[in-house]
Design a protein that fits this description.
The structure is a homodimer of 324-residue chains.
Chain A: H1 5-14, E1 17-22, H2 28-43, E2 47-51, E3 68-69, E4 80-84, H3 96-101, E5 104-109, E6 122-125, H4 132-143, H5 149-162, H6 173-182, H7 190-198, H8 203-214, E7 217-219, E8 224-229, H9 231-237, H10 247-252, E9 259-267, E10 270-277, H11 283-289, E11 293-294, E12 298-303, H12 307-323
Parallel strand pairs in A: 1-2, 1-4, 2-3, 4-5, 5-6, 8-9
Antiparallel strand pairs in A: 7-8, 9-10, 10-12, 11-12
Chain lengths: 324, 324
């Protein structure tokens, strides 16, 4: 059973040394929420770090705020290991040793998956909350810590990235109410944060996006659009695969496209597939056929075959799914 | 002096026949605000229409809601002619005859310009409000009309387009507070509206965008990026110029780009120039040198010369401005 925000806040008040674990393949919500909580706990005089084992993506670097560490022995004693925007050992892959150091273990998350997996001392998961940043905001208020500009920036980044700039269906009244309060923080400027997150793409990434968009394929009378990022394309443009964020949204912006599919060639035998749908198509069901998963409208899978084989396997399934 | 929202609402209650005028080259705020007010006034039993003389852009077609007309004689008697998101005769170009039919004239706007020009019976301009949709929302509440789903959709569209999805600096606490309330309306779903506005680009427009992005030019060590849409490019892709919305934002998303400039070749002797800046550069001052204008960070001008000549004139000015 979910613990209350009150009981979690009370517990946090009694802890002096805390390691915070955002999920692997961190996003704005994982990193923003983790750092916001870390900053708040530090203001209370606690020893706290955000434990990482991967580099922070360039567009989220401003969410570091001196909080993160790669050193699993940074604290002599760890009273609490706390997962943020994450619930389950598979989500903190590679950081198990540091995790086990915490005498108490808990998680605060808004994902629906992983709940059955929980053997922690406490947890809070709110699948109807748009971003973990919203939960963290409430906890910081309960802790009695003033929202500083850095904390406000982290919370805004967490919420705006996970809601697709307040456009996704997960956005609620509460989402906007919390963000409204951030505007009371001296110096807060949404544009500054937004430009840091979205307006630092490399010229090379823009060229790559241009190449992908110029070579889309369409199926089912345009209801399905597919794009491909091959190793050759990355090499030609001098890009890495993690610079492909955002391309799938561009594909989804096309009129009449219900399903978007982006093939990412990790190597000649491994194809990562991102799936999106606009309205009715259950992309998670298609991804599940190939060992993947996700949400109804956003999912993915990894296929151990070459690009041509992957396309031949998945496109017919998408055609069936989109016509349902 | 600005009239109060209370006095404007009281006046609206006494009017039975009202023509509403959104500004020319309508955007989401002009059309969303106009239709929202029209729907509210109709709920009060009034004869009201949104007076247009241009087609509604495809991505805003859902904001029509049976409210608009092109017939300047649609009402036998016009008690009030009301500009929305607009203040000044130049903003309702081509609809002067219909405008003059109103025995009382007023405007409700959030633009700073045009205020000196006002000779109307009443006006309300709020330059610090992000969208006219916010002002209209407050007026509808004062009128005592319940916010229907259609009205909520119009208000959301008005606000989300004028704030760049709540990312622009013009966004305030009040913006989010109003949108929070829209979530109380039965059936309201931000994603539906957002998909209608942003996710109906033609395949051809995506190809054109791809071509523009593949051929950007950079100046001042990458601080300036320029793109071009020629008639030849439009022809090649089967696009019209008004499908180029959004390309300038893609240019601005590039790391290190402080100034973005998009040249649109209307014909061989007329080049429309859109200018944007990220931080400090005063693009309005550059546009003003060529008879244009706008805001600090977003402006434009029209140059009566060919593309090459326009580039040779404006790029050196941008280089000076960006280095300031």
């Amino acid at each position: 059973m979910n613990d209350s925000l009150n009981s979690i806040s009370s517990l946090l008040k009694t802890m002096d040394s805390i390691l915070i674990f955002p999920h692997i393949n961190m996003d704005g919500d994982a990193m923003g929420s983790s750092t916001a909580l870390c900053l708040a706990l530090r203001k209370m005089g606690k020893k706290t770090f955000v434990m990482l084992n991967e580099p922070i993506p360039k567009n989220l670097d401003f969410l570091e705020c001196g909080c993160s560490t790669y050193d699993e022995n940074i604290l002599d004693d760890v009273q609490l290991s706390l997962q943020i925007d994450s619930c389950g050992m598979n989500r903190i892959y590679g950081r198990e040793v540091a995790w086990e150091r915490g005498r108490i273990k808990g998680c605060i998350d808004h994902h629906a998956s992983g709940i059955n997996d929980i053997k922690y001392n406490f947890y809070r998961t709110e699948p109807k909350t748009a971003a973990t940043g919203e939960i963290i905001y409430k906890i910081i208020k309960l802790l009695g810590v003033e929202i500083s500009l850095e904390i406000a920036n982290c919370i805004f980044a967490a919420i705006t990235t996970d809601t697709g700039n307040f456009q996704h269906t997960n956005t609620t009244r509460n989402t906007h109410e919390i963000v409204a309060e951030l505007y009371d923080v001296e110096g807060f400027d949404s544009k500054t944060i937004s430009a840091l997150i979205y307006d630092r793409q490399s010229k090379e990434a823009i060229k790559m996006e241009s190449d992908v968009l110029a070579n889309l394929e369409f199926y089912s009378e345009g209801k399905i659009a597919t794009g491909e990022i091959t190793q050759e394309l990355l090499k030609k443009n001098g890009c890495s695969m993690n610079e492909s964020e955002g391309i799938i949204q561009r594909i989804m912006s096309i009129d009449g496209v219900e399903v978007g599919c982006l093939f990412k060639e990790k190597d000649q035998k491994v194809i990562m597939v991102s799936l999106r749908s606009k309205h009715h198509t259950n992309t998670a069901a298609v991804a599940a056929k190939f060992g993947g998963g996700g949400h109804l409208r956003a999912s993915g899978c990894t296929m151990n075959m070459n690009l041509q084989e992957a396309k031949e396997k998945i496109i017919p399934q998408l055609i069936i799914a989109v016509e349902k």
